Amino acid sequence: MYLMNISNYSGDLEKFQKDWKNVECFLEKHQLDGVELICYNEEYLETLPRHILKGLHLKYFPTWLEFYKNNHEKVCEMFGGIEGVRQYYGGIHPETLKEAFRNEYQRAQEFGVEYMVYHVSHVTTEHSFTRAFDYTDDDVLDATVELVNQAFDRNSDVMLLFENLWWPGLTLLDKEKAQRFLARINYKNKGIMLDLSHLMITNPKLKTAGEAAEYIIETIEKLGSLKEWIKGIHVNLSLPGDYLTADHQSEYAEILKTEDQFERYIKTVGHIKKIDWHVPFDHPLVKNIIDLIEPEYVVFELQTQNLQQLDDYINIQNKAIGRL
């Protein structure tokens, strides 16, 4: 099943004149079976045709470990006080996270989606610039297991797919860690959503799409039988090695000088976008990756400024895979 990512954010839907019928026509034009949705608010959901909605990308809090562990002082320091904490998480107590994911899970059931996507990662704003992490993969994986087992009904029919990132958490670079993580998740209908860009970012030495494809294939083969747990793929390309290995201390210093929390957020997002590009994987070896994994879902997860660029990107991706 071939899908594309979309959100119900008005800026995203403006590409389609805020009309889901135009989205349907676009999907048909590009031989796509539906969408993987991110919900930012409650807008435009009533008119969303359920038959095109196949997956729900759950909320993602990039920074959550300190909050979950109730390190109140640290969290207030990071978010400029209690109101900043409330604005970011929707509450001031760790239980807020569980409620957020319970609500997302309920929404997935109401929508009748086939799968949900859960980011398994943690990073603070500071460490996104410095990479001087004071938490490990195991710290993030252990806390995620605890949170997921409390927030989701283990017997649901909706598949719960855990997505890899390049920050501490589920990187998929360590087979044993990934196996232990999945084994401890009580949710029965579970699996992995492999994000190709996120895997590329773990290797800053990659310079070309061909090198990236070979690295991904090599990494997947090292997973052995764990490969069978990969049920979906986010297809995109990121080769930010030069940027990733540069010194960003001065950029972080500028953020520290920025008092407005929203402006801080915008600057940080700009930094992340220079790492995670979300452009088409335009090398024919991408088809070899798909053939190797044989996923149920292939999602074109791309970021574009307008409909013409999205149209071009989807065409590039379909051509690389051999669908045109």
From TrEMBL:
InterPro entries (UniProt xref): Xyl_isomerase-like_sf (IPR036237), Xyl_isomerase-like_TIM-brl (IPR013022)
A Pfam family: AP_endonuc_2
SUPFAM superfamilies: Xylose isomerase-like
Superkingdom, taxonomy of origin: Bacteria
Residues covered by the Xylose isomerase-like TIM barrel domain: 99-236
Protein's recorded name: TIM barrel protein
Source species taxonomy: Bacteria, Bacillati, Bacillota, Clostridia, Eubacteriales
